Amino acid sequence: MRTTDDGRPFIVIGENVHATRVLLRRGSHVVTSPDGCEAIPFRDLGGNERLFRLPDAILASDEFGLGKVKHVRAALVAALTSPEPDATDACDYLASLVRRQVEAGADFLDLNVDEISPDAAKQVDALRWLVGFVESLGTGIPVALDSSSTDVIRAGLEASARRDGAPLLNSASVERLDVLDLAADHGSPVVVTAAGRGAMPADATERVANASAMVAAASARGIGPDRLYVDPLVLPVAVDPDHGRRYLEAVEGLRAALAPEVHLTGGLSNVSFGLPLRRLLNDVFIDLAVAAGADSGIIDPVASDLGRVLGQDRESESYRLASDLLLGRDPYGATFLAAYRRGELAAVAS
Predict the structure, then answer these.
(1) Which of these, 93, 70, 64, lies nearest to 19 by C-alpha position?
(2) Enclosing H/E stretch for 298
């Protein structure tokens, strides 16, 4: 667990064992194996260089045709349906992803299988299997269960042996109060979001009001403040230049309004969707979130090493350009993108 500049622990909900995660086919991420198959190279837990061959279902997918590979989905499909040795290779690939998250400092391992299939029963079976598999690795840290379906979350919760702690449930909202009931019944920590009924919050004030109502609903169910992870919702600044600022203002408001034991979190990398130099933008936004009062993040700790993130030079030109974009002072990133096209940000983005 990393600490912030003022000594507060920062809790990382490691997001990379997630069926939506994408690798690009170009470059070194996907290679052609000696037998002519598309495969992902990886280093297994024994330090050996290996190849995970992509299953036919992934090769036939629209994403693959567009040059993208949903690699966690691919590994889940192969682990559950492929013959040997491909199934074992898929399991070893998943284990390598888990190990990297743990070694990079994750405090929870966020698991999501929603995109393995549109069939709810297959999602339930997949999360049950994945929870058992990840817990069998003996990581020493608990899992987090992420799904758009409460039934899938419930299945993962019931599958957990809880040897490394109670699973974190991700997430509850005003339209998913049954997730709060699960958390109360099973003694689990829970992410509560600032989503409204049928709509995203319009501004920081609405985020604070919605999130505060969720904290009150959790308290009424006997869920203590230290088990609450409040997500004021991070949305892409490429869609609306004020999204980043609204999230940060909501964090400041909630930190002032809520008990200090309540954790403030969010999917911090969402802010950079659709933009180049995402690592730089994510690093700066995490730093801004911590300064606003966030003590947790749903992030990939491999890509966003907190030692680097919290040690950034806040006086540098790259930090200034990124923060201006993220705070809405450079709407839609006109200045940032011009610097990117001139190659002025290449060194810090590598």
Answers:
(1) 70
(2) strand 296-299
